[in-house]
């Protein structure tokens, strides 16, 4: 039942967000030994207020062998802003990338949509690159530039502003395909020892990824306005982009 939990929104989401969320949840049910991760009670369903408008955030955490944390966040800020954020953080003992996807909707239109498999080592595993190269390319009309802190992304990152229902469908199809590459890689991968140099290197790479993501001031500003700076720090540091545990604490489990 935990895999199917959904929030009660303060209003209807932009249609793309529940479509993506439903697709992700459905795919996770096929993972081996997937289970819910514990989460502080006040972080599962969050309600606040931003400039007089309601703010609602829903979080879901899962894990499975090979993935230390699956995080899905959906949020509504006021009357005009909808957000979906999803990250699959691999266990550093597995040679796997980080799956990340974000969709931002403002005033009824998708302003940003990004999906990537970010390397935790020097580059993506060859088997992952081969699978990504087989995916079709869609002619999006408004590609977007990766932010300055986006050195964590791979050359295969897709960052666009969909301008039509067809482009939203293209983005959903591409996200599902990239997510499928990630899940297939999870099922295929075998762990290395916790003290293996590659495990330690991937731990360092994931640590750098989280540090870079925490540099996104837009996220922090919204949370600080709706709550306060101390709560925003806790949310970002402990839930959104927590540092990966030292290899060996869960490797191969």
Distance, first to last CA:
23 Å
Sheet with the most strands, sense and barrel status: 8 strands, antiparallel
Element order: H for helix, E for strand: HEHEEEEEEHEHHHH
| Number of beta-strand segments | 8
Structural class: alpha+beta
Beta fraction? 15-25%
Alpha-carbon Rg, integer: 18 Å
Assembly status? single chain
Count of helical regions? 7
Which descriptor suits the 3D outline? globular
Share of residues in helices:
25-40%
Low-confidence regions:
1-7
Mean pLDDT: 90
Structure explained in plain terms:
- The protein has 253 residues and is an alpha+beta fold.
- The protein contains seven helices and eight strands, in the order H-E-H-E-E-E-E-E-E-H-E-H-H-H-H.
- Strands 1, 2, 3, 4, 5, 6, 7 and 8 form an eight-stranded antiparallel sheet that branches.
- Strand 3 and strand 4 form a beta hairpin.
- Helix 1 packs parallel to helix 4 (165-188) and helix 3 packs antiparallel against helix 4.
- It is globular.
- The model is unreliable at 1-7 (pLDDT under 50).
